[in-house]
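> example.struct
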């Protein structure tokens, strides 16, 4: 049944003032802002909206631009899986067409239509997406695992002797960039400056445009180089695809892939590590072997999807969603964060979702994330290797002192300080090994949070089913593995 809610765009003459109209008021039961003081705790706001409006709620974006936010799990899936009713092409969005969205709107980078697969539909979407997915299909997963392992080893070497680290800036933000630079075909561009530039461009700070230019210059150089002399990498396969992408289209898709993977995977790594460090039950399950690292990552994708919402989908015709009348030209936020905690799907939020991958973190329908295996692999291998090497790792601040930076699109952990007993560096070309924790210094420091330290060689299950030996291999105090096993292990690690 369709409720008698007003059309968002206010084109229904019987509906009274539209939500965007100042006369509408923002009292109880009225439309809430997804910005400013209303939105300080977005999760709590989504809960209130669900109580007041059900599975699809009217909200206001910056400048009080009207939008629907989709809160139900089933309704989110219906939205992304109905390309005949909804498009990602913002040019049909009524507030944009009627000039209500100003050019300096803070969400303009998400709103402005671009010639990329995320904004395209129909044949054009198929053309662009086919090139992206075909280029991705050429990526050798074993060599990706090798890159992830090597870079994880290198990053941990950077701080393991100090006994302290800040895992957001020293690990989570670096690993995806290092791996993606390898995959795209520009390993030489990976450095601190590139990580800072991507972070800065996404934060929208004063230097965001300059930082964005820095990243785009690197992608332009790569496009020119590979157009002239193709190699066996993602960029060359994208250029060489029969879809015949222009240089502009290639650059824009490299940008899409680099930023989407960098931001989402950095968030996923930080969220998963935060969970391991602050939720004792979680860590105990990992250490006891009742949960594998990939299962822990999947739970994190349910509880804290790296993109809380995706802007946006737009109604191509008058329709209905979650009992709401949706008018042609209305905009809707696809919303994994509230959708994943829909009480109809998860009546008990503390219950484990082990074995259930039907969360919304990677979207769905024709635009479903084509890079999800890579995102998962970076998180699985990275978290597993880091926990293997720093098995006594603990949070180095009170849990209440952790801070997040939230926007409509995502929620980032600002910093994740940790401490552990200092450990020696390891060869980046070898699998990570657990190091012994000196007996006299292995206990928790008094008055510090973070739970009990983990025994140095506590076995967890394999991050990858293909590599059962890797997780428990060669702990420093264990008997040396046989030469055959060691060779097999090395071959797996090097991706031979
Ligand atoms: C944990 C990591 C990741 C998460 C949570 C994530 C999530 C998402 C989501 C929610 C979408 C939008 C789906 C929609 O519009 O309905 C998306 C699209 C996309 N993602 Fe990812 N992503 C991740 C990693 C990656 C990686 C590693 C790559 C590339 C290697 C990638 C490439 C893309 C592309 C190209 C699109 C646009 C697809 C289209 O519109 O057809 N993503 N991703």
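> example.seq
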């Amino acid at each position: 049944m369709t409720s008698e809610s007003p059309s968002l765009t206010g084109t229904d003459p019987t509906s009274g003032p539209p939500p965007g109209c100042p006369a509408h008021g923002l009292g109880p039961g009225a439309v809430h802002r997804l910005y400013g003081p209303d939105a300080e705790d977005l999760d709590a706001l989504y809960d209130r909206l669900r109580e007041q409006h059900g599975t699809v709620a009217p909200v206001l974006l910056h400048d009080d631009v009207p939008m629907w936010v989709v809160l139900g799990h089933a309704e989110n899936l219906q939205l992304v899986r109905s390309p005949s009713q909804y498009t990602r092409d913002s040019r049909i969005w009524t507030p944009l067409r009627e000039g209500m969205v100003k050019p300096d709107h803070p969400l303009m980078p998400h709103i402005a239509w671009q010639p990329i697969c995320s904004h395209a539909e129909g044949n054009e979407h198929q053309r662009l997406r086919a090139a992206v997915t075909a280029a991705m299909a050429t990526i050798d997963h074993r060599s990706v695992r090798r890159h992830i392992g090597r870079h994880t080893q290198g990053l941990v070497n950077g701080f393991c002797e100090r006994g302290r680290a800040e895992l957001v800036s020293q690990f989570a933000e670096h690993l995806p960039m290092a791996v993606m630079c390898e995959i795209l075909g520009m390993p030489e561009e990976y450095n601190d400056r590139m990580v800072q530039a991507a972070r800065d461009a996404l934060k929208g700070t004063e230097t965001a445009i300059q930082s964005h230019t820095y990243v785009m210059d690197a992608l332009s150089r790569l496009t020119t180089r590979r157009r002239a002399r193709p190699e066996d990498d993602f960029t060359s396969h994208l250029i060489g695809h029969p879809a015949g992408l222009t240089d502009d289209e290639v650059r824009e898709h490299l940008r899409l892939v680099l930023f989407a993977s960098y931001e989402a995977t950095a968030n996923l790594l930080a969220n998963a590590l935060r969970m391991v460090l602050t939720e004792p039950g979680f860590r105990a399950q990992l250490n006891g072997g009742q949960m594998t690292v990939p299962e822990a990552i999947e739970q994190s994708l349910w509880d804290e999807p790296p993109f809380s919402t995706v802007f946006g989908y737009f109604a191509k015709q008058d329709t209905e969603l979650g009992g709401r009348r949706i008018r042609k030209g209305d905009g809707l936020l696809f919303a994994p964060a509230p959708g994943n905690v829909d009480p109809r799907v998860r009546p008990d939020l503390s219950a484990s979702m082990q074995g259930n991958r039907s969360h919304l973190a990677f979207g769905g329908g024709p635009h479903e994330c084509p890079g999800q295996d890579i995102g998962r692999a970076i998180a699985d291998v990275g978290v597993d290797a880091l926990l293997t090497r720093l098995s006594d790792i603990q949070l180095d601040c009170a849990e209440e002192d952790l801070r997040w930076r939230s926007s409509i699109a995502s929620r980032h952990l600002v910093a994740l300080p940790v401490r552990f007993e200092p450990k020696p560096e390891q060869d980046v070309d070898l699998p990570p090994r657990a190091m012994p924790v000196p007996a006299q210094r292995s206990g928790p420091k008094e008055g510090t949070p973070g739970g009990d330290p983990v025994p140095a060689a506590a076995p967890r299950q394999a991050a990858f089913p293909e590599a059962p030996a890797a997780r428990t291999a060669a702990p420093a105090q264990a008997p040396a593995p046989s030469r055959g096993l060691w060779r097999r292990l090395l071959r797996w690690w090097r991706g031979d």
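> remarks
The CA atoms of residues 267 and 306 lie 5 Å apart.
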